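User: Okay, second chain of the day. Same drill as before: sequence in, structure tokens out.
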Amino acid sequence: MFTGLVEEIGKLQSVTKRGEAMVLNIQAASVLEGMKIGDSIAINGVCLTATSFNRSSFAADVMPQTFRHTNLKDLRPGDPVNLERAMAADGRFGGHIVQGHVDGMATIVSRTPEHNAVVFEFRAARPDMAKYMIPKGSISIDGISLTIIHSEQGEFAVSIIPHTLAETALFFKQPGDTVNIECDVLGKYVEHLLNYRISSVEDKQNSTAKSSSLSAAFLAEHGFM
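Assistant: Same drill. Structure tokens below.
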């Protein structure tokens, strides 16, 4: 699990592609401290596994499912990426619950300075993600924990302070670029549980309706009486 507080901006050294499979080699510093093979690390908000590392970089595999549904497939050598290690059990929870399981992508529509902040407006690639986007709600954008200030029909906006912009790869993004989006997991769980409950009630009602159709006339008609 992650919190959406980016630890450092890494740099893509190289990428090896075989169809929809990739190996990313990323130059880093802070996230290498204490790293072990198999550790989880969020790269632009995508939870990946460190498969090898040295004093200045690490490697991670990207499988086809991740390739198809995130913007990692568009990375080129030299591109900056947001990096965050998995949260330690005794760590401070500064952002919000981020799983690293991207729901889809969004495109930057505009980038507008507003006094000491910058307002980014986005358009989600999947309109159905809009139901999880609520004003003052949390959202992960390329692994950054941010607060939605406006949302309507699949378009949403966030306001970013100078520190966050300077310390993340979003600083380099411009209108037309894509970002990875992970909606608040709490909303997704609530929706799933409610749908499951409604489905269970409907199944029970259908079962009751079927059993109530069993009558003496029905049994006689089918030779049971």
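DSSP finds four helices and twelve strands in the chain.

User: Thanks, on to the next one.
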